[in-house]
Design brief:
This protein has 153 residues and is α+β, with helices and mostly antiparallel strands. The chain has helices spanning 14-64, 66-69, 91-106; strands at residues 76-77, 111-117, 120-128, 144-152. The longest helix is centred in the N-terminal third of the chain and has 51 residues, at 14-64. The model has no long low-confidence stretch (mean pLDDT 89).
Length: 153
């Protein structure tokens, strides 16, 4: 019987370990990118949920104060976003001021618009969704999101 003079290989070589580490690192970098995209998408979804809740809130306030709503006391056109609107005046003025304050506090640069045609009301909520954008753009106008809610009062 003859024995081979070459020693048998035991364990993994250093190059095999390095290749494994590189492949694992590339996979983990990909997962980190997916996590970042997921966080941005969740932020945008949160803003949409807030816009929906706040639009429904104003619609309910208008239904509760239908007489003034039908007199166009709730009609407004995208004022500057501010959370210091004075809550005084008629019930419609108070409702609008509270709604605009909530928009400004819950959404970045959040503001709203209300239009009425007979008993059909259109409530629009606008905010800056730059933090929720997955693909960055230099055009500031594309960062604005608008949620529109139409209902009968």
């Amino acid at each position: 019987m003859t024995r081979s003079l070459l020693p048998r290989q035991n364990g993994a070589t250093l190059i095999e370990v390095l290749i494994t580490v590189v492949i694992l690192s590339i996979g983990l970098i990909g997962l980190a990118g997916l996590q970042s995209t997921s966080v941005q998408s969740n932020q945008s979804a949160y803003y949409r949920s807030q816009a929906t809740i706040l639009a429904y809130d104003l619609a309910d306030r208008m239904r509760a104060n239908r007489t003034q709503a039908l007199k166009d006391d709730y009609v407004i056109d995208f004022p500057t976003s501010a959370s210091n609107n004075g809550v005084t005046g008629s019930q419609a003025d108070k409702d609008l001021a509270q709604w605009l304050n909530n928009l400004a506090l819950n959404l970045p640069d959040g503001t709203g618009k209300v239009e009425r045609s007979d008993t059909l009301v259109t409530i629009s909520v606008r905010w800056d969704d730059n933090r929720g954008r997955i693909k960055a753009t230099d055009d500031e106008s594309t960062n604005t999101e608008i949620f529109v809610y139409r209902t009968e009062i």
